[in-house]
């Protein structure tokens, strides 16, 4: 993917890592394959894309780029859904990785910024996919007004529009109703 971006656009100036995956695999009886799948996408995939975006910026002397990790409220709070605890652990990892990235960029004397945007429930197919075998459980979340995709897009625009001397580290966005 990054080779294609380099060939078509010279490289990456802004990277928005927005992939995320959850399985309803709890800690006491969850499937190892589900856990590995979440780690591969939510942690390893994000880390690989972050590394490649940084390398793209570095080789082209882009020192005002930005790396944004779209995380989750679950990266800051353990929500009492037993089947989301492993997913929550991957999102706590994203929080730690973003802070680690900021520290490494600072040590490298880079002006590239790193931000973690952590939304609560967003109107999407997340719960329908998570509870595909239990549609009643998925539909229970429809009672609460969720954030909309445009709310997250507006947060990205806000972060990207910050003056060069401003580092917005973390943005937590929640709907007014619980979760």
UniProtKB/TrEMBL annotation:
Name of encoding gene: LOC115399975
Domain of life of the source: Eukaryota
Similarity-based family: Belongs to the short-chain dehydrogenases/reductases (SDR) family.
Species this protein is from: Salarias fasciatus
InterPro entries reported for this sequence: NAD(P)-bd_dom_sf, SDR_fam
Protein's name according to its UniProt entry: Dehydrogenase/reductase (SDR family) member 11b
Alphabetical UniProt keywords: Oxidoreductase
An annotated Gene Ontology molecular function: oxidoreductase activity
């Amino acid at each position: 993917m990054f080779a294609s971006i380099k060939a078509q656009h010279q490289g990456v100036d802004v990277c928005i890592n927005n992939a995320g995956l959850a399985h309803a695999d709890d800690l006491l009886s969850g499937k190892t394959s589900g856990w590995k799948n979440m780690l591969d996408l939510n942690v390893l995939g994000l880390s690989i894309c972050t590394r490649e975006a940084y390398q793209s910026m570095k080789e082209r002397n882009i020192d005002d780029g930005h790396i944004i990790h779209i995380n989750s409220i679950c990266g800051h709070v353990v929500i009492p859904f037993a089947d989301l605890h492993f997913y929550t652990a991957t999102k706590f990892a994203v929080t730690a990785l973003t802070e680690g990235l900021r520290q490494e960029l600072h040590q490298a004397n880079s002006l590239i910024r790193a931000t973690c945007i952590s939304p609560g429930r967003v109107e999407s197919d997340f719960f329908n996919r998570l509870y595909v075998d239990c549609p009643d459980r998925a539909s229970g979340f429809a009672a609460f007004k969720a954030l909309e995709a445009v709310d997250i897009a507006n947060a990205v625009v806000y972060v990207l529009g910050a003056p060069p001397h401003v580092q917005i580290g973390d943005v937590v966005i929640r709907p007014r109703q619980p979760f």
